[in-house]
Amino acid sequence: MATILEDSKFDPQRDLKTVGSNPVKHDGLDKVTGRAKFGADFFLPGMLFGRTLRSPHAHAIIKSIDISEAEALPGVKAVVTRDDFPDIDPGSVAGDMTRTAMAREKALFDGHPVAAVAATSEAIAKRALKLIKVDYEVLPHVIDPVDAMKPDAPILHDHIRTKGLDEPSDAPTNVTERMVSKMGDVERGFAEADVIVEREFDSKPMHQGYIEPQGCVAEYSEDGQVELWCSTQAPFVYRDRLSAILKVDAAKINVQQSELGGGFGGKTGFYPEPIAILLSKKASRPVKMVLHRTEVFRGTGPVSGTNYKIKMGCTKDGRITAAQGELIFQTGIFTGSMYFNAPNAMFTRYDLENVYIESFEVISNRPKVNSFRAPCVPQIVFGVEGVIDELARKIEMDPIDMRLKNAATEGYTTIYGETLGPIGFVETLEAAKATDHYQSPVKDGEGRGIATGFWFNRGGETSTSMNIAPDGSVTIITGTADVAGSRISIAMMAAEELGIDVDKVRITMADTNSLGFNRVTAGSRTTYSVGMTVVDNARDCISQFVKRAAEIWDVPEDAVIYENGECRPASANVGEFEPLSIADIAKQTTMSHGAVTASTSMNVTGAGPGFGLHIVDVKVDEETGRTDVTRYTVIEDAGKAIHPLQVEGQYQGGAVQGIGWALNEEYVYGEDGRLQNAGFLDYRMPVTSDVPMIDTVIVEVPNPRHPFGLRGVGEVPVVPTMAAIGNAIGDAIGVRPQSLPMSPPKLLDLIENRDG
Amino acid sequence: MAKKVHVTTTVNGDEYEYLAEAGQTLVDVLRNELELTGTKEGCSTGDCGACSVIVDGELVCSCLVLAAETDGKSVETIEGMANGDELHPLQRNFLELNGLQCGICTPGFLVAAKALLERNPDPTETEARFWLAGNLCRCTGYDKIVRSVMAAAEEMRGA
Ligand code: FES
Ligand code: FES
After folding, report:
1. Mean pLDDT of A547-576
2. Nearest to A49 by CA among A124, A161, A147, A145
3. A599: contact with B, CB 8 A cutoff
4. Residues in chain B within 8 Å Cβ distance of A120
5. Which of B30, B48, B132, B135 to mutate to test the pocket of ligand 1 (most atoms within 8 A of CB)?
6. Which fold has domain A4-36+459-604?
7. Under CATH, which number does the domain A40-140+208-299 receive?
8. pLDDT, tens digit, for every residue of B38-49?
9. How far off is chain A from B158, nearest CA to CA, in Å?
């Protein structure tokens, strides 16, 4: 299996007709007219409605569950509990997944599903939940990861032993892993430093905040086939994981993704889907489940909260000599936070020689965390970029110059062992310096901050196929999700390669029965990877067009060339032939040769890393502690922007998510271990009136391994946001905050102590 | 079984008659009884605006309105916004300026923006931002939504 196009044929001089323009997205019309079908918009005849009963306790043994009264309620067609799930050993990947979906031995967090009902109406299902009797033995709980590391902390799972300790211990613990990442010699590096800054930081879990709650319809038929319609970033991964926990062959589970109403990483793993399937199995009818917003907050994946220390040193002329970190990540009830992204990414963009990072992942009684754009990185960059800013201030150096002085370039080998190819970090920094925003003076009473960010960008398993219709129009079948409009970019790349109008191309998002495995849409991988496979599809189809044209003209294949959507004789010597369009060829040969089609499966590699810099101006009201963002500019390398408006949208959306994370968003738990702000009123995400326009600068330093030079752009936009805002607040009030979110009470505290 | 309420409403100009449970919300009826799923339900508590509809000229969150309250009234939803084949200028500008990414918030924003422009055809950016503050979008950062609304307003004033 190929991992990349053998010859990307990337050509910076290529005259592009479609790539780089802004056509209206083909899925847009359905979305502005209300026709688009999201997870909750699907209906089947005879469909029942499912609802989930959730634990009110953060940590409790489930002694028994009595469902008899609920089952007896008229209209109730099925009740499921842990007993309906196959028994899988704790500690295995599938064991953790099944216990996340439905509590087994214990309820492990407030909101953990313990039972579910399917009934003829939602109202009846809700009534039935009240009739289920669960006998709990409440246990002491622990919410905070630092508390969870203490020797006397309540233990969630008896089988866990910390991996990666220098001296292994056999004591049960909540610390799942320790990881050490290092290069060079930090002691020597610090000895060479003229200035050293060491600070402690923390961040709270936040929620991905997608506006569409999880929704699905499941239908289980008596012969063991499962049809699942759901809102997901990962139809194939859902299929395979459902297969693992329900013990059904993957081939018998067909997952059809709906339109996705936002995910940002939060829909990479399932929640109601396995429950809906088991309810459908028991009731022998299709079952629809849609989460309520309170369930989304209580029961689905937040982002890791963190506690950490950063220490860095530099010389008087701004060269960073050593960088050190000690990081603690909260992962919720099971391992799987992807915390290792942080040590790999937190300093990467600087060409450091001496680095030492020790990371810990810790379990506690809150929902298992889920991915969010650049999982586990932005909350640590908040500290890293704060420390660099402080160093720059101490040596009186311009903050962008300080970063330029230490910028990684092609050939640098990162802490995770990759030697960087052509990258655009220096270009991004230079573009930032040249912006009108950076060139303009900071307004009176305001503060300005900048910060930078990096993301690896990803590839991975990707399959697509292409079908040429007899009229020359093109359908492409994809198995990735469209999280923000990737379909149009994919159609544009195919159109460009085929030399036809993008309006002639349509994308269908396949069900899992129709295509080979596609990895989750995450990590900024989709437009990059699918771009690779559809260009391969297009090249395959083109070679078939050439073959068929040669046959029609009765000339050798090498006497035919394909250009601008048609086959022409390679030279005057070949003979006088009218060019043949795709439609001409398809029309003349489909009857005799069958349709022109192509399929490609790749495990794509070669994604070029992405870099960004954010500039932000803020005004802090010293009476109330409220911060207003007054001006914001995102500068980021896209390699090549296929659809610039889409790329800008990624930059702007990431920045505003980061503004929420920086200033407001956090989970608040009571002493009882219950989440206290499980709704949009108390968990406050930015609204239109909270933010200014977000200016963008798209830098284009191509990744030559891709036919159009593109890099993923989905993760980087959130990485530097909180750091940039933190630095701006620091500039405004004279003290750089070290705790996220930088909410009014915390800022008032800082202001008071500053003056005190 | 609780007694149901007989409701007669006009939705997007068509007359509907149905029986609603006393506590049933308008968004529930629109989506699940009338199968007008263009109106979205993001929170059920009036905090996200995805369920925005217009009832007798007033912009409301249909998750906070009981279906029974709309008896004898006229309801406008996203499905009634285009005039046959012809998109409303707001819809067209959202498409052309990329005022949507995932699109789940889009029906709510369009309905809310329509209500704004009916009241105030020439809003400032700040007025538009405050009017739309009841609608959450997690994808776009609002920039292109606000630009789409302002462009549509300008176009409608010119027309
Ligand atoms: S669903 Fe009505 S405001 Fe959110
Ligand atoms: S476009 Fe996705 S929530 Fe607004």
Report:
1. 95
2. A124
3. no
4. none
5. B48
6. Aldehyde Oxidoreductase; domain 4 (3.30.365)
7. 3.90.1170.50
8. 999 999 999 999
9. 22
